[in-house]
Design a protein that fits this description.
globular; 282 residues
Length: 282
């Protein structure tokens, strides 16, 4: 079997790469607020589909855009199948432009240009950070959580024509949980790398995650004072879930758990958190 595999040219087994959303955590952070706010708005407008499609298209276009910019302007080695990346970038760009055109026709102009400017600025930041390989910056990860969950604001504008006061609260709460989740995942990745290399794990993301959990608990206390039981429960549940994961990251057996399973557990926690927020803001 080994001889046969070596006899087959590498190009024969190479398939064109599909540039689809591959970061499941980011995809969940992008989509969960859309469906949550659609429920909280208690009304539906067909153009909410344009928000969903635009969000997926923007996320999917990032990788081919970064790859082609690196190759074109930074003198990097020519990427494999650059024409495939260009085709996917073109396709996602067409989808994005079509979706944005629908939002332009249905949104208030002031809201459209304000949100559009913010998204364009963050999009440029994402590409710049990726080109400089600074994706692991703690501040960038937190900013990414806030940006990805801002689809809640876009959905609210689409459904109601403006951003309701409850939506600002929802965005802040969902962004807090998303930030904590990102930091905990990065802490796990650092621990896995350290285990494999038999060295001490970096504490950068672990410390940041602990601070994020403390903020979640403070927010839970505030929710109790304001008599928002469901929201307090959501915050406490998220803090407990992430704290449990930080504890088990010290166990070498737990660190060998497949990341797919870890992601499924994080997704379940995120869904429960969102459901409790919906109940609390209903």
């Amino acid at each position: 079997m080994q001889t046969l595999a070596l006899a087959i040219p590498a190009k024969a087994s190479r398939r064109p790469k599909a540039y689809l959303p591959r970061e499941h955590g980011a995809t969940a952070m992008l989509l969960t607020p859309i469906f949550s706010v659609a429920l909280l708005a208690r009304t539906w407008h067909w153009s909410e589909l344009a928000v969903l499609v635009a969000a997926v298209a923007a996320l999917s276009a990032k990788d081919p855009a970064v790859l082609l910019i690196r190759q074109r302007w930074m003198g990097k080695q020519k990427p494999p199948q650059p024409s495939t990346a260009l085709q996917w970038l073109f396709g996602w760009s067409v989808v994005l432009i079509a979706s944005v055109s629908i939002l332009l026709a249905t949104w208030p102009l002031k809201a459209f240009f304000a949100v559009g400017a913010a998204i364009a600025t963050f999009g440029c930041l994402v590409i710049l950070v990726n080109l400089k390989n600074r994706q692991r910056s703690t501040l960038f990860q937190i900013a990414s959580a806030a940006a990805l969950t801002s689809t809640s604001l876009a959905t609210c504008i689409t459904a109601l024509g403006s951003i309701a006061s409850w939506c600002w609260w929802f965005w802040g709460l969902i962004a807090m949980q998303a930030s904590a989740g990102i930091l905990v995942v990065h802490a796990r990745l650092d621990a896995r790398i350290a285990l494999r290399k038999a060295v001490a794990a970096s504490q950068q993301f672990r410390r940041a995650a602990q601070v994020a959990l403390a903020l979640l608990l403070c927010a839970a206390v505030a929710a109790v004072v304001l008599r928002r039981a469901s929201i307090a429960l959501a915050l406490a549940l998220a803090a407990a879930g992430y704290a449990f994961d930080l504890v088990r990251q010290k166990d070498s057996i737990s660190l060998q758990m497949p990341l797919t399973k870890v992601g499924q557990q994080a997704l379940l926690l995120s869904i429960l958190y969102s459901a409790l927020l919906i109940a609390g803001l209903w």
